[in-house]
Structure formats: C-alpha cells, structure tokens
Amino acid sequence: xxxxxxxxxxxxxxxxxxxxxxxxxxxxxxxxxxxxxxxxxxxxxxxxxxxxxxxxxxxxxxxxxxxxxxxxxxxxxxxxxxxxxxxxxxxxxxxxxxxxxxxxxxxxxxxxxxxxxxxxxxxxxxxxxxxxxxxxxxxxxxxxxxxxxxxxxxxxxxxxxxxxxxxxxxxxxxxxxxxxxxxxxxxxxxxxxxxxxxxxxxxxxxxxxxxxxxxxxxxxxxxxxxxxxxxxxxxxxxxxxxxxxxxxxxxxxxxxxxxxxxxxxxxxxxxxxxxxxxxxxxxxxxxxxxxxxxxxxxxxxxxxxxxxxxxxxxxxxxxxxxxxxxxxxxxxxxxxxxxxxxxxxxxxxxxxxxxxxxxxxxxxxxxxxxxxxxxxxxxxxxxxxxxxxxxxxxxxxxxxxxxxxxxxxxxxxxxxxxxxxxxxxxxxxxxxxxxxxxxxxxxxxxxxxxxxxxxxxxxxxxxxxxxxxxxxxxxxxxxxxxxxxxxxxxxxxxxxxxxxxxxx
Length: 504
Known about the structure:
Blueprint: E1 29-30, H1 49-58, H2 71-89, E2 95-101, E3 104-111, E4 113-115, E5 120-121, E6 128-129, H3 134-147, H4 157-160, H5 172-177, H6 189-194, H7 202-206, H8 226-240, H9 244-253, E7 277-279, E8 285-288, H10 294-301, E9 304-305, H11 307-318, H12 325-331, E10 344-348, E11 351-360, E12 363-370, E13 375-381, H13 388-399, E14 404-405, H14 417-421, E15 425-429, E16 434-441, E17 444-449, E18 455-459, E19 464-467, E20 470-479, E21 485-492, E22 495-502
Antiparallel strand pairs: 1-14, 2-3, 2-13, 4-5, 6-9, 7-8, 10-11, 11-12, 12-13, 15-16, 15-22, 16-17, 17-18, 18-19, 19-20, 20-21, 21-22
C-alpha cells in the first residue's frame, strides 16, 4: 500500500528522464543503432537489428510466439526481455512482466522464483498481491456508482457516517484524491507490525483514524491516505447492499472476465500463488513474509491478480466498458500532486501516463498505461524491490525507440562506523515536503523517508552511495568543516534534488 519509495518521490520532480535523451559517458546506452543481444555479459552491441533478432530467437527465451509478431515488435520484445533479464540478474526484479503496444501483447513472461523454497519458477500466470493498484478499481467503481446515481462525488462523509468529526466538510471526492486530511492508518507502525495479519472489523479500522485531528482542512492539501480508501470501500457496501468484494466482481471483474483476480490473498489456495519475500542480511530477497489480512488492506490494497488480468483491466478501460468517456476523464484528471481519483497522472518520456504502483510486505507492483497509443505495462514482483519505477520508464523508452541504459554494476567500499555516523540525521527535500531520516544500522547507513520504505545505502566513495534496492539511484553527502553531513544530493538518471539537514 506504499505509493512511493525514496527514489519514487523524485519521479515527477525534475522533468523528462535522462535515459529518454542520451546515455552517460561510459555506460551502455541503447538506441536505434545500438541494441543488446542476450548474453551473460550484456555487453555485445551488434549494429544490425537482424543480428539481434537471430541471436534472440535462437536463445529460445522469447515469450510470445515469433510468428505472431512483426519484425519491429520482435525487436521490441528482444530489447524488453534483455532489459528485464538484466534487472533479474542483479537481484532487482523477480516476477512477471507484460508489455503491450497498440493493444497487442508484445511480451508476457516470468522471471525468477514464484516459490524459492520449492524451486517453482515464475510464469505469465503467477498470482500476486496487487496492493495499492486496488485503488484504481475502488475509484473507478465509485465513479460508476456516481454515473448510476447511487452516490455523488460531492456527498459529504457525514451522509454515510453521521457524527464523523469534520464529516460535513469532507466529500467523497476528497477521499478519492487524498485531499481529505484524514490520518493514514498505515502510518500506525505498532498496528501494522502486530495486527496487520489478523482480521479487523470496520469499527476497529475506523478507530485507528476517526478521532485523530485532520492533517489539514479538507481540500487544502494532499497526503496519501489509505484511510480514505477504506472509507470508500465501506461506502460502496452501503450504497450497493453488497460486500466490497461482491461489488467489484459484479461491476468489474465479471464483465471483463478477470477470472484470476480476487481479494483474500492470505488464504488463497492456488498453485499459481507467488510467495512474498523481503531481503536477508546480504540484500538477497529470500526471507518469506506473512500476508496482510484482506480486512486490513480492504479497498485500499486487498486485490490479488495476474499480469494477464491487469491487461484485461486496461482493455476494458480503453473501450469504456466500466465508466463513460466523461467519467474516465473525471477520474483521470490530476487534482493535486499528480494524482486524480485513484490514479497517478504523470508524463514519462514526454508521454501522458496514467496508472498506479503498489507495495505490501513481500510485494511491489506497477501498472502503467499510455492510452494515446494503447500501451500497457505491468510489473508484478514478489520481492520488495525498489526498481520498478525505473524499469517501467526504461520499458517505455524501449517502446518509443529512445535511448536507455542497463542497470549499472557497482563496486562497494567499506566505510568505518565513525565516518558513517557523521551523515546520520534528518534531511528535508523541500520540493516534496519530504523528510528523510538517515540512521546507522548494523554498520550500514539506512534511509527512512516518511513516505516510503527503508533503503540501505551502499558506499562507492567516502561520501557517495547508491541504494542497494535500486543501483540506478545515487546520493552524496555534502559536509561542513567538521565533516558533518549538511546536505544530501540525489541523482537518478539526471533527475536531481537536494535535501538539507534539519534539526529535530
């Protein structure tokens, strides 16, 4: 149910990604005239596309039957698979990927292990906890119910919860757009750590945020709030007379024939179910995790699905099978912070995108659409990788024949504890009002952004680091005369920012 990791916060800050422009000196850049074959070294760059395709199809690693692809589509598949394989080799992607262009699936393939203990590999039918991609379904169903005149986006929360604090000033639209000011219950660390795997009633969930003061007056600010989407799920039940699960099935899953999607992932008994993993002490994703109970994530993040079913979701939205063109326009219009009603709105490589990411214990997901070209990219991972946003952008670069780079190989150096300790503290990225806490854990610097998961920093010099979870992300500390960190610079493929130390 995480929207952004530390690196993800920067995605929309600094313009068009550099890898959509040109490769950096010394890096392997991929463009119209330099295409990678599938080799263990990832370093061969034949000049002719024919050479790439010949090597690729001889390798028998392609996912979609070669006969169904044009030469241009086969080339896209080869480049996308090479890119995904490179991330897999570097422990940054394990899961299923789907890439579709002009409504046609170009690549659909699994990478890595569905279940490490049983040595079951991923395939295109692996089932994942979709996490916050659930919000796209919740919000679209709310829009449909509005079109059916079962509710209004301007309805006050007090209509459904009489006596709710400030309920007369909070609307359904505020809940959809994260502008209600309602405290995000998943920020309650004690509850999430000790109770999230156990069933919770509506009353128990409401008690986690109902009486906490609003973060800001409704409509005046933006703060990602899973609490708002829990309320939307309960409102859906009130106006339809159905459970949230039954309503989603009736109005979305069944019409779109999404037969491999559901809600109670923790208790799912299916051979295709992927086990979730977080990293061990070496940084490898090998430690099994317990699943969050569906009553805890509910309308904010309970859905499980497959890459194929999410492509059906994309197709249904393209033909306006669920909501009208006017309804889709309303929910996919950015309100604040590049967010509409349940959808992230962005521009990647100069292309308008709409989608959502997700994160739960042991899972990270990303679902991105470019409606203008009927493009759909699905990345579903059963690890807590932080590379999905970067990988998505590079796949878009592949589709539009723009330059991009394979993930870099890094050499890590060991710094002593005294040197690292000078960098600890809190740094503020003012552009996003984001505080990043840098702490020392087991001899490593670890970043804890207030919106996003922890990231381990690996040193490449006495002052510069990369994220162990995303090798493309670089950060350096600037120090004062005493060697104490005073600024934290951030660079991800040319998107740069500076966070200043603040005292707390």
